[in-house]
From TrEMBL, chain A:
Annotated family: Belongs to the Ahb/Nir family.
MF-aspect GO terms: lyase activity
Keyword annotations of the record: Lyase
Gene3D superfamilies to which the protein is assigned, alphabetical: 3.30.70.3460
Protein's UniProt name: siroheme decarboxylase
The EC number(s) this enzyme carries: 4.1.1.111
Pfam families: AsnC_trans_reg2, NirdL-like_HTH
Record function comment: Involved in heme d1 biosynthesis. Catalyzes the decarboxylation of siroheme into didecarboxysiroheme.
Subunit structure: Probably forms a complex composed of NirD, NirL, NirG and NirH. All proteins are required for the total conversion of siroheme to didecarboxysiroheme.
Reactions listed under catalytic activity: siroheme + 2 H(+) = 12,18-didecarboxysiroheme + 2 CO2
Organism: Pseudoalteromonas denitrificans DSM 6059
Siroheme decarboxylase AsnC-like ligand binding domain segment(s): 80-168
Pathway: Porphyrin-containing compound metabolism
TrEMBL record, chain B:
Organism field: Pseudoalteromonas denitrificans DSM 6059
Classification via InterPro entries: AsnC_trans_reg2, HTH-Siroheme_Decarb, NirdL-like_HTH
Name of the featured protein: siroheme decarboxylase
Catalytic reaction equation(s): siroheme + 2 H(+) = 12,18-didecarboxysiroheme + 2 CO2
Pathways involved: Porphyrin-containing compound metabolism
Chain's role: Involved in heme d1 biosynthesis. Catalyzes the decarboxylation of siroheme into didecarboxysiroheme.
EC number: 4.1.1.111
Cited Gene3D superfamilies: 1.10.10.2890, 3.30.70.3460
Domain Siroheme decarboxylase NirL-like HTH: residue ranges: 13-57
GO molecular function, one term: DNA binding
Keywords tagged on the record: DNA-binding, Lyase
Length: 186, 162
């Protein structure tokens, strides 16, 4: 794992090993206690390298400012809130046009993610992916049709893959290196 | 406490709508939220615990930039319908898999594999192929145009929990 942080970036920064420990702690979620950053500081402190609450806060703050952390807050499972329709819309778009269309799709509030990925021919012809979340299938399809009309995309080969079962939905675990680690988040 | 009453709670809705991002970085963040929403620190903590217990809250913490935090890829398997639960469970056993969904397509099982780096991710894919005895379609991200995994939740309709 590469951390963009080095000691010159923040005042009183913690050492690299403790940064990795902090990363691993917070990716599991903050403890729901009155002073969560203090609790984490205690977790990653060693007798020779004590870590203060303020150092934990400063490090998370720096990670946010550097973009390593995209957002910091409640990570909710939208299905539980009634957002049952989760559609992955995949498009087969001419390479010359893919950037423009991707930017158009990204403008739409219901599109929560838009990525270009490689085609894997002959199995998989689609090179642009976007996610749309809605309360039901009809709503998502109607909104998708509106978008296609708006940007004149109806002629483009696409496919809508609704999800039917969520077998797993949890935060990424970059800190894990072994597949034999059975620690579970949920 | 059942899920619909948790969702119906005003504090739940306030927390979800206001703090999917920008969670306070201060000594007592729950107290700060409590002051903002006119309640007590303990009430906020209790509310978050209920959200966690009902499964609405996955966690309170960071969403990392996948590219910068490590490596990841989208992957898919084409499975016979009557085998999908079995194969999905095999895939779930890998802790490096963080999302795993059944979807309506010939490729009907879709998951995300994460790792410290690209080599680790491809090693895991190989292990998944061995464990499931299925070939994995690997679709790494080439370019990100947009990502915002927080989104406005509208609570004004009847909520049907899944």
């Amino acid at each position: 794992m590469t951390f963009p942080l080095n000691k010159s970036h923040i005042k009183n920064s913690i050492n690299k090993l403790q940064q990795e420990m902090l990363f691993a702690e917070i990716e599991q979620g903050l403890p729901l206690v009155s002073e969560p950053y203090f609790a984490i500081a205690q977790q990653i402190s060693t007798p020779s390298d004590p870590v203060t609450e303020q150092q934990v806060i400063n490090t998370i703050d720096a990670w946010q400012q550097q973009g390593l952390i995209r957002r910091f807050g409640l990570v909710v499972r939208h299905r539980k809130l009634g957002y049952n329709a989760n559609a992955m819309v995949v498009w087969n778009i001419d390479s010359a046009k893919v950037d423009l269309i991707a930017q158009q799709l990204s403008q739409e509030p219901i599109v929560t993610l838009c990525y270009r990925r490689p085609r894997v021919l002959p199995h998989w012809p689609y090179n642009l992916f976007c996610m749309i979340h809605g309360k039901n299938r009809e709503q998502v399809l109607a909104q998708l049709e509106d978008i296609c009309k708006k940007y004149d995309l109806s002629h483009i080969d696409k496919n809508v893959l609704f999800s039917t079962i969520a077998y797993k939905q949890q935060g990424a675990r970059y800190a894990v290196t072994s597949s034999h680690n059975n620690e579970q988040e949920n | 406490m059942d899920i619909s009453s948790v969702i119906a709670s005003k504090l739940t809705q306030q927390l979800i709508n206001a703090y999917q991002r920008g969670f306070p970085l201060c000594s007592r963040p729950f107290l700060q939220l409590a002051n903002e929403f006119n309640t007590t620190e303990q009430t906020v903590i209790d509310c978050l615990n209920q959200l966690k217990q009902t499964g609405i809250l996955s966690r309170l913490g960071p969403v990392f930039d996948h590219k910068r935090a490590g490596s990841s890829t989208l992957a898919a398997i084409s499975v016979k319908e009557n085998k999908i639960d079995e194969i999905a469970n095999l895939v779930n056993e890998f802790e490096q898999v963080n999302h795993n969904y059944a979807r309506e397509h010939k490729y009907n099982l879709w998951f995300v594999v994460t790792g410290a780096n690209r080599i680790a991710v491809y090693q895991t894919i190989k292990e998944i192929e061995q464990a499931t005895q299925h070939e994995v379609l690997v679709l790494p991200m080439e370019k990100s145009y947009y990502i915002d995994l927080s989104f406005d939740v509208s609570f004004n309709q009847h909520q049907k929990a899944s």
